[in-house]
Amino acid sequence: MNGVLTITWKEMKGFMMRPAFYVICFFLTLLFSYSFSISLFQFVQMAGAMGMHPGMGGGQQQANIHYMVFLKQLSMLNLLMIFAVPALTMKLFSEEKKMHTFDLLLTAPVTSFQIVLGKFLAAALAILFIVFLSMIYPLSTALFVENMKWGPLLISYLGLFLVGLVYVAMNLFCSSLTESILISFFMSVILNVSLWFIGMGVEIVDSQTARQVFEHISLNSHLSGLVEGTIRSQGIVFILSAVGLFLFLCERIVESHRWRSS
Asked: pTM of the prediction?
């Protein structure tokens, strides 16, 4: 466990020392601010037209603000993570291979899984910070909405963080496949985007069995319940299984490098 924590701390320091991390967070904050301001302004206008006031704590208003404002912020977060996560993870393995420090890492007294897990946890913490940046804006609405129900909002952000973990695991796997940082980035983006097209198979196939298969492997169908504020055990299991699968594949790649270098 000490090896995992050491690698996690090393990678976290790497994130904090790179200007790219702060540039990414800066641009994400700008986009979050713009998106949330527009959505909130539209909601206030509509609430005014319906005779509602921002200080009301009615369930109808809270339902509207969740779907009209918070869900748009969540959609923006998911879209940005498709590109932000590859930008953060593309160097985790590729750069070490390019700088020839990967072979030194393999000689350290840590297992391949500890290497993968340490890097994964560091990237997961970075994604958690980005999710928190996005969450600041909905939290600020507590100043205007009385008796706000926090459950659906927190569950929605939990769902987006879990999706972020899937991105991290997939993109870490892509980074382990190549020495090129750019190739790692583009492979990661393609894989992230393709993940959302799997659910389109439900509308294409005619077989009921095939429909059920596509629904089961569609990340969108599993995320929809979480975004609406409902925790479904099968969705959590699927997302964690996807994370475990790509971490396992990444560990196999690292282990193969260990055997070839020995």
From this structure: 0.86
Q: How confident is the model at residue 203 (pLDDT cuts 50, 70, 90)?
A: low
| C-alpha span between 154 and 152 (Å, rounded) | 6
Residues in the chain: 262
HSE value, Cβ hemisphere, 13 Å, CA-based, for 10: 15
Pull the structure tokens for residue 26: 């800066």
Task: Please determine, for residue 222, whether its predicted confidence score (pLDDT) is greater than 80.
Answer: no
Q: What are the structure tokens assigned to 154, written together? A: 């927190």
The ranges assigned to domains in the chain are: 2-261
The alpha helices in the chain, defined as continuous H runs, are 2-17, 19-49, 59-65, 71-89, 91-98, 102-106, 112-140, 151-177, 181-197, 201-204, 208-217, 219-227, 233-261
User: Token pair for residue 90?
Assistant: 């593309």
What Rg value do the Cα atoms of the chain yield, rounded? Answer: 21
* Closest listed residue to residue 174, CA positions, set 161, 164, 183, 165: 183
